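Listing S7. Sequence submitted for prediction.
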Amino acid sequence: TNSIGIAPTRWLAKFGSDTCEKGGIVVLSRNNLLGYLKGRDLIEAWGIADRTAARLHLLGIRTLDELMMCEPHALKRLLGIRGHELWANVNGIELAPARLATPVEQPKSIGHSHVLRTRTTDRRFYQSVLMRLAERTGRDVRTRGLEAQGLFVSVGLREGGYYGKNVTLSRSLTGGDEIFRLGWRILERLIGSYTAQSFAIGVFRLRTLSHQGCFWAQPRKDAVYAAMDVLNDHFGEETVHWGTLHRLAPVHAPDRILFRKTVSTSTPRSDLMLKTGTEQDLVLQDE
């Protein structure tokens, strides 16, 4: 069941859809925004995790309405440009310019991201969160009748910096387990001994599902995906799920609106990629 947020900015519209009840609609405007934010915990907002919330506490800011009313210069002194961005987000100020796209029938990329609520070096926890994001991505791809031949993944580190890679593939992806497996192979090397604080994973080079490529035919796995989709559509998300997700609480990587780009076919290829600290293209050899 989808929830809908309507607001003057993309960030507020996403926040509204994330925080309203399942299947509900929330309309945010300057007249009701302060009241809607009043008393809400800082970490309800996308992009604010425990560490950032703790720093905001130093200014006496503990709720989103207090963040909205804070002096932006104080936030910038504390958090740099990120502080100004947080203030602008909750005040309904659009910082990123809107991009007009020529009409196209399918997105150029589909993916999901999450700021971790728990700071840990537990690799099993990382894998569970990434699997949830990857499975949602796979579900979105299959729902649209698409397949992907490119994957991007990135990690934000507590020690500082965002690192990621873009990967071109010799075969198509539709399954969350495949997206997870390839993404984790990359992330495991990028994280190393550091502590992850955010993940993003998605796919690009999308095309209409062709059912071609007999060398890569996997009818059994496609049947599993189809059966899982039917059950989860009917009984609710993750009624049937991959073992890597077992016992991961819903609070981690909760159901959010996916991010995707719909751009003109004349847009340079580099603009279709996630902007990361070590952006690269490489061909991943199939196992």
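Caption to Listing S7: primary sequence and predicted structure tokens for the chain studied. DSSP finds nine helices and eight strands in the chain. The CA atoms of residues 75 and 81 lie 9 Å apart.
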